[in-house]
Amino acid sequence: MNYCTRFLLLLTFTLFFSHSFAQQNNIRDKAQIFYYGWYGNPSTDGSYQHWNHEILPHWSNPKWNNMGHHQGGDDIGANFYPALGNYSSNDTKIIEKHMKMIKESGVGVVVVSWLGKDSYTDKSLINYLDIADRFDLKIAFHIEPFYKNTSELKEQLSYLIKTYSNHHAFYKKEGKPLLYVYDSYKIPKEEWAKMLSENGEKTIRNTELDALYIGLWVEKDDAKFFESSGFDGFYTYFASEGFVYGSTTANWNFMAQYAKDHHLIFIPCVGPGYSDTRIRPWNEANFKSRNNGKYYEKMFDAAIKVNPDFIGITSFNEWHEGTQIEPAIPKKSGDFKYEDYGKDPLFYIKETKRLTDKFLKKK
Q1: A Pfam family matched by this chain, by name (predicted)?
Q2: Is 285 exposed, middle or buried (0-12, 13-18, 19+ CB in 10 A)?
Q3: pLDDT digits (tens, 9 = 90+) for 43-65
Q4: CA 292, CA 343: separation in Å to the nearest integer?
Q5: From CA 289, how far away is CA 341, in angstroms rounded?
Q6: Residue 243 reports pLDDT greater than 50
Q7: What single DSSP character describes residue 318?
Q8: DSSP code, position 3
C-alpha cells in the first residue's frame, strides 16, 4: 500500500469516527439540565450567597411574615445538604467537579440560570463555557424575569449574544441559540408578538438576536398565549407533578399534540422530587417524595412516552426546592435532620445516566 493510499484511508477513518462522535454528542444535547450558579461563600466571595436564603413569606397569610433567614454553614436554606458543602459558584474547582458529574449523568446541555449583565450569575460565565467545553458539554441559558419589558430584555440579550455566542460551548440548534424564558406569561402575548413574530414591529427575527425562544407553559389557558405570542416552543420546568397544568404529566399528550399542530418545540421537564419547606414552610402540599428514584423514573417515562425533541431536567443544583441531582449527604443541624439519598450520594447522577440512555435509545 503506497503512502497516498494509506493517507486517504487514515483520513476516511478519521472523518468517519469524528462524524460518529459528533452524532453521539449531538444526541446527548437532547437531554438538558437546569443549573444554578448563584451560590457563594465567605472564603471565595466574601459572604454567603443563597446558602443563607431567607424564609419566604406566604403571599396572603401574614402568619409567615418575618421568619428570618438561614445562616449558612450547617444551617442552609435547603432540605438536603450538598456533599460539596457551602460551595461557591465562582470556584473553578467546583465548576470542574460539576461539569464532570453532568458529563457522567449523560446530559449534553447545561441550562444556566441568567439574571442579566453584571449580575452574580454573569460573573463566572466565561469559566463555565471554558470548562464545559473541556468536557464536551454545551451551555444554554435560562432567562430569569429580571427585566421589566421586552425593550430591556432585548438590550440584555444583545449583551449576552455579543459577549458569549461565538464561544464553542455556547449551545445552538441549527445555528440558533436556545433560550428558555422563565415566567414568560408575566408580559402580555401582544408585547411578545411585537418582538418574536416575523412581522412584529420590533421583531428580532433575522437579526443577531434571532434565537429559539422557549416560553413557560403553566396553566391550560396558556395554549392561547402560545398561539399568538411568537415563541418557538414551550417548556414545563416544575418538578412537582400536579403543581400546575404544565407539570401534570397527564396533560403532556395534549401539549405534545398542540406543539406538533402549531410547529412548536415541546420540552417536558422532569425532576427527582420536590422538597422546599426550609424556605417555604407553608408549602407542604407540593412536597414530592423521591421514593428511592421511582418518582424520577415515572416522570421521565411520561416524558419519553410523548417522544419530545428534548427533555429538560429540573435540576442539577436547585437546592432550595430540593430538585437537585447533585450529590447530597446525611447531616443533622441542631434538631433538624436533612433528607438524603440513602447509601449512595451519587445515586441520582447514575440514575440520570440510566434514564437519559433510555430516552436517547428511542431517538
Answers
A1: Glyco_hydro_99
A2: exposed
A3: 999 999 999 999 999 988 888 88
A4: 11
A5: 11
A6: yes
A7: -
A8: H
Tell me the C-alpha distance between 272 and 27, whole Å.
Answer: 22
Q: CA-CA distance, 106 to 355, in Å (whole number)? A: 9
Q: Are 329 and 81 in contact (CB under 8 A)?
A: yes
Domains of the chain: 27-361 (3.20.20.80)
Residue type, 96: E
DSSP 45-100: HSS-BSTTPBPPPPSS-GGGSS--B--BTTB-SSSB-BTT-S--TT-HHHHHHHHH
* pLDDT score of 17 more than 50: no
Distance CA 43, CA 46 (A): 6
Please give the distance of CA 263 from its chain centroid, rounded to a whole number.
Answer: 23
Joined grid coordinates for residue 259: 406543539
- At 51, list the grid cell: 446558602
Q: Are 111 and 132 in contact (CB under 8 A)?
A: no
Q: What is the per-residue pLDDT across 249-278, written as a single tens digit (0 to 9) for each?
A: 999 999 999 999 999 999 999 999 999 999
Contact between residue 272 and residue 323 where contact means Cβ atoms under 8 Å apart: yes
- What's the confidence (pLDDT) of residue 7? 47
pLDDT tens track for 112-157: 999 999 999 999 999 999 999 999 999 999 999 999 999 999 999 9
C-alpha cell at 296: 424520577
